[in-house]
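Q: What would this chain look like folded?
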Amino acid sequence: MKMITFASLKGGAGKTTALMTACGSLVSKGLRVGLLEADENAPLHQWRKYALKKGTWNESCEIEDAVDLQAFEAAYERLEARDMDIVLADTQGGGSEFNLTILASSDMIVIPTALTRLDLDSALDTYALVAEMLETSDTPDMPVGILVTQIPTGRLTSAQSFCLETIQGLPSFDCKLPARNAFADLKSVGMLHLYEVALSKIPSKRIAATHISTALKDADTFANDLMQVLGDEHAHS
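A: My prediction, written as structure tokens:
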């Protein structure tokens, strides 16, 4: 069982949204996905709560509280005992010792960032923290990638172009998550593939369902990239 950790020293960069996006896509491929929630605000539990009300949750995904080291270790063992295929961990904000422990226990680290100078600076700080940690760890070659989120679907501003050029000088994912309403609303709609099915059954919502289909392609590209980096047998081309 491999673990991918989503980390950012700053809130609002798209960390939890990126995790939920990947989770839904991986589950739609038939994988059993465990989620470790270290964030005390419990956004993943809230996501599941809303999804259950809408009928857009797949029970192949299970969430465990991991708000401190003891809870994290116990939660990981429970997910491992349930034969989960992969675990996605959502960290707390900041560079606490607990966060560093989660990062050091990972098989891959994803650092999301939007194309603003504030988000970019935070992503660079997070990357520097991770790089320093890996230098003294037992897994110095752990894959780490910066993921661009909330990228405009139209022309970039000069400031956004500068941020993108800066990121391209660092290990980063080729795929990017565009600024789509489907991602912005993800927390309240549940898993996208199930939400698309629900919308397609309502005649007046079929156009909205096509917008979800577009977002699903982005989500699948991201999930496939994650699995290919891990070298997992479940990776899809």
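Confidence is low (pLDDT under 50) at residues 233-237.
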